[in-house]
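Page 42, continued from yesterday. The earlier attempt failed because a stray header line got pasted into the input along with the sequence. Redoing it now with the clean sequence only.
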Amino acid sequence: MKVFVLLFALLSATVQEDVDSVVICGVGDDNIEGFREALYDFNMKLYKKLAEHTHGHFVISAPPLWQSLAAIAESMDGVARQELLQLLGLPEDECTRQTYYQLASSRETFGLDVTMQRKHVFFIDEGLNMNTEWVNLASTQFNLHTIPVPIKRAPKDVAYLIRHIISSQLAPLNLQGNSLLADEIDYNGLWSEAFPEADIIRSPFYDHEGNQIGSVDLMRIKRRVRMVFVEQINARVVEIPVGVDGRYRMLFGIPVEGHDMRKSIEKVTATVMFEMVAGLKESEVPIDVAIPRFVTTTESDVRAVLEQVGLKSLWTDASATRNISQPAVMPSGFVQRAEITLDSHGIDSYNPEFIEFTEYSTGLDPKLGHEMIANRPFMYGLFDAETYVL
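This time it went through. Structure tokens are written below.
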């Protein structure tokens, strides 16, 4: 099955450089839109590059990568700072940046309905003298925790420790520098309404040309859903509520039959994302929806991808991170392990809708048809219902 996805603080000695103090600002609609655009743009840059480097079966959680890099950007100056701000879509105005950070840190709320277990860690060599103001800022505002480890003295032991902390099997880890950024996310959520177990059927899975390439367990439900046909990527998109009161939304994008998913990915931009979300409309009659039940895990060092989209200085320029530590931290990589579990469980049991209608019309774009069956390569993404960013 090919799918594509759009998920200890120990302080060492002190360096006395100042880190900008936190500025508290109000959050307006303009800031939310700017925040969404920054996240969409960053996400799609990584998404497209990862799609090129994989066989089309991967998951990535871009927001924690964005947050960790934003924490580092706050300590930079000069050309390196401009490079990172541009990649992250962050403005020069400090107040606006702070509202972006507040929005990013508040997208996830605790609940038993949706769990996103995260770890964001900056492993730094024990010989570095850290700027404790920056360490505290990174931990409290960006949830990035710094752990001193003996990278130079005992790299094999450090590699074992890192794999244990983020549950990674990635080998080998690049520990040639004096630090390493690492991130882990495990997603498991309950649909707002369960998919009935009795309707889960082992079904063929096809490539875009209609050739069977495997089999999947398709979870089926029939109800009114929000949908949109996205002309730019030639794909149908369906939204399925997740969690209590649909506080999250899972979007599935399925290209029309015969259209290669890779061509759709190449055309996705932040503008397309905005138009897609704005165009979602509820069907007037129940729609047959079927999506696979699966668990997907991706482990990767995204340094090469970040370099390809413009982040050059962080890894090799000591002047770029001199405000974080002495000697300057120069991470050798940025490892992420992301896992997503999709099964049939939900908050409420399936309750079929009985709607009287004289004409079997969905009230939507005719190109959407009367069913959404994800039995060929598709894209999917999880969003919070308030800002449509996650």
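Notes: Residues 254 and 378 are 5 Å apart (CA to CA).
Reminder to self: strip header lines before submitting.
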